[in-house]
TrEMBL record:
Keywords, alphabetical: 4Fe-4S, Iron, Iron-sulfur, Metal-binding, S-adenosyl-L-methionine, tRNA processing
Residue span(s) of domain Radical SAM core: 257-511
Needed cofactors: [4Fe-4S] cluster
Claim: Lipid biosynthesis is one of the keywords in the record: no
Organism of provenance: Cricetulus griseus (Chinese hamster)
HAMAP family in the record: tRNA_metthiotr_MiaB
GO molecular function term, any single one: tRNA-2-methylthio-N(6)-dimethylallyladenosine(37) synthase activity
Domain MTTase N-terminal: 113-233
Family: Belongs to the methylthiotransferase family. MiaB subfamily.
Domain TRAM: 514-589
Family annotation (PROSITE patterns): MTTASE_N (PS51449), MTTASE_RADICAL (PS01278), RADICAL_SAM (PS51918), TRAM (PS50926)
Name used for this protein in its record: Mitochondrial tRNA methylthiotransferase CDK5RAP1
SUPFAM superfamilies: Radical SAM enzymes
Reactions this protein catalyses: N(6)-dimethylallyladenosine(37) in tRNA + (sulfur carrier)-SH + AH2 + 2 S-adenosyl-L-methionine = 2-methylsulfanyl-N(6)-dimethylallyladenosine(37) in tRNA + (sulfur carrier)-H + 5'-deoxyadenosine + L-methionine + A + S-adenosyl-L-homocysteine + 2 H(+)
């Protein structure tokens, strides 16, 4: 698999009620982005205090009058500070008996309003969409997949590169026409921006794009029912408060596709690494892990529902550290991968990723376990050993390198040298024979010379990854690189280098995948191939797509029984051809994960 992975993502307007909630973050840059605002129109100097202008400029006097006067007597700064922390303790905010004093319980209910959710960017955003929907569903909203019938449109956004944000701006312009058309209807259309872009741009979006009614940062989804209740009356509302402990541990995400064979389980959020090019620590906040018990609960439920694969999800998934219980907080030092350092003071104690992986993999022997996205610094031997030993942990590791040049790695503040990275690759391959490796690379980072680029090319040749995600550098405000370095590689050079890396990646991945031809592989069936209804499609252990004709085969656990493979079945496939992204073959039999692990597949 080779592709460009997408983490799809003005001046302050006088805000009548801007509530700055500075959390006591020890970390400089984040403290300035931790705020929450509620925008009401009652204090517009040009607007009578008893009436409100909706975001379309329509008078909504009357219906909202009562609401407005309650709002006037409404929240204080202290209330928001309090509610921000209370919300994290109360799992079912929409159903709580004590709604904020300026809203009745009824106003917090969705009143069957139809919500259309659109997701951009990485897998974390897909999971966030499921969390946001779970919260809204409990609050009485309905979901629609038809944009035309939506009462509320929520875009879950990404900020990682400029292009991801541009996609959202373009989408907002399209939605503007839809909103204007609906402005005089009984239920006007409301539009919200969720996730990283809401966090990064905050009030700037509300000012620049009047189409937008609601902003909710990645840690504010519990507040969506309240924000929508405010929006319902024609106000704009926002909560972009970053949290030190929000993990949505108690929210069971609603799986978007009920027939899916696999699910994503969020285990940690945020990032403390502060790579110099990256906006993530600013939009998603500090690293925090979900308690082990709640993760195991969710995986158990998914297993009971018959799902056959879970992918543990997090910005730095293998930096997992559950210190939710006092007894976990011992002084056990952290084992990093050899030759790797951190940009922050080394942490101690807590239940680590190896513990979680061990527990998760014991739940269901027929459930495949994957994880993404890890950081190369957190691969101590105990994690590698576990991946090797457990038949249901996939032998597939994503190992983002970003560059093959020491000079550039240093400027990126990645905390390792090329040599340490290559040594880790060798060590991983020794510990887990046959492991599949993938990576992320950025071309044209500040100061990258032709020689630096050639060193990246040589790293791709040396490691021979099975898959890669390649990006041209996109300067992001607030990052260290923005403040200290010069974005001095011309756009056309960045793109030319990107093309070169794509070509090399394809060649190496094709070569690596060719070694599968003639082998028998275990494939988890996902359904029919998109291109042909006579072919089935699934994924092998390395997460590579495998396509094979649908045919009647024997079931190895039920000798003599002839079956046709269904989504969620494990089958053995003899591989007959390979490209850089796909394998093809023919089906041999239906089997189980456990059974296939006891026979050496060749
Ligand atoms: N420009 C280009 N790519 C970036 N990434 C992160 N920040 C940037 C940026 N500013 C890439 C990294 C990361 C992946 C998720 O996105 O390769 O691993
Ligand atoms: Fe961004 Fe680096 Fe954190 Fe990955 S590890 S999210 S690249 S800061």
């Amino acid at each position: 698999m080779l592709g460009l992975r997408f983490r799809t993502t003005g001046v302050m307007h006088p805000l009548q009620c801007v509530l700055q909630a500075q959390r006591s973050l020890k970390w400089g840059p984040l403290s300035s982005v931790s705020w929450l605002l509620l925008r009401t129109c009652r204090a517009h100097s040009s607007v009578p205090s008893s009436s409100c202008l909706s975001s379309e400029g329509q008078s909504s006097e009357g219906v909202e009058k009562d609401f407005s006067s309650r709002l006037a007597a409404g929240p204080t700064f202290q209330h928001f500070l309090r509610s921000a922390s209370v919300l994290q303790e109360k799992p079912s905010f929409p159903e709580v008996e004590d709604p904020p004093p300026y809203l009745t319980g009824d106003e917090l209910l969705g009143r069957q309003r139809k919500v259309y959710l659109e997701t951009y960017g990485c897998q974390m955003n897909v999971n966030d969409t499921e969390i946001a929907w779970s919260i809204l569903q409990k609050s009485g909203f309905l979901r629609t997949s038809n944009l035309q019938e939506a009462d509320v449109i929520l875009l879950v956004t990404c900020s990682i590169r400029e292009k991801a944000e541009q996609t959202i701006w373009n989408r907002l312009h399209q939605l503007k026409a839809l909103k204007t058309k609906r402005s005089r209807s009984r239920v006007p259309l409301r539009i919200g921006i969720l996730g990283c872009m809401a966090e990064r741009l905050k009030g700037e979006i509300l000012n620049r794009e009047k189409t937008v009614d609601l902003l909710a940062g990645p840690d504010a989804y519990r507040d969506l029912p309240r924000l929508l209740a405010v929006v319902e009356s024609g106000q704009q509302a926002a909560n972009v408060l970053l949290s030190l402990d929000e993990t949505y541990a108690d929210i069971m995400p609603v799986q978007t596709s009920p027939s899916a064979t696999s699910a994503f389980v969020s285990i940690m959020r945020g990032c403390d690494n502060m790579c110099s090019y990256c906006i993530v620590p600013f939009t998603r906040g500090r690293e925090r892990s979900r308690p082990v018990a709640s993760i195991l609960d969710e995986v158990r439920k998914l297993s009971e529902q018959g799902l056959k694969e879970v992918t543990l999800l997090g910005q730095n998934v293998n930096s997992f550290r559950d210190n939710s219980e006092i007894q976990f907080n011992n002084a056990v030092p952290t084992n990093l991968s050899r030759g790797f350092t951190t940009n922050y003071k080394t942490k101690q104690g807590g239940l680590r990723f190896s513990h979680l992986l061990d527990q998760v993999s014991r739940i269901d022997p027929e459930m495949r376990i994957r994880f993404t996205s890890p950081h190369p610094k957190d691969f101590p031997d105990e994690v590698l050993q576990l991946i090797h030993e457990r038949h249901n942990i996939c032998k597939q590791i994503h190992l983002p390198a970003q560059s093959g040049s020491n000079r550039v790695l240093d400027a990126m503040r990645r905390g390792y040298s090329r040599e340490a990275y290559v040594a880790l690759v060798h060590h991983i391959r020794e510990c887990i024979p046959g492991v599949s490796l993938s990576s992320d690379f950025i071309t044209g980072f500040c100061g990258e010379t032709e020689d630096d680029h050639l060193q990246t090319v040589s790293l791709l040749r040396e490691v021979q990854y099975n898959a890669g995600f390649l990006f041209a550098y996109s300067m992001r405000q607030k990052t260290r690189a923005y403040h200290r370095l010069k974005d001095d590689v011309p756009e056309e050079v960045k793109l030319r280098r990107l093309e070169e890396l794509i070509t090399v990646f394809r060649e190496e991945a094709s070569r690596a995948n060719q070694t599968s031809v003639g082998c028998t592989q275990l494939v988890l069936v996902e359904g029919f191939s998109k291109r042909s209804s006579t072919d089935l499609c699934g994924r092998n252990d390395a997460n590579l797509k495998v396509i094979f004709p649908d045919a009647e085969v024997e079931d190895v656990t039920n000798s003599g029984l002839k079956v046709r493979a269904q989504p969620g079945d494990y089958v053995l496939v003899k591989i007959t051809s390979a490209s850089s992204q796909t394998l093809k073959g023919h089906i041999l039999c239906r089997t189980t994960l456990k059974d296939s692990s006891m026979h050496c597949l060749t």
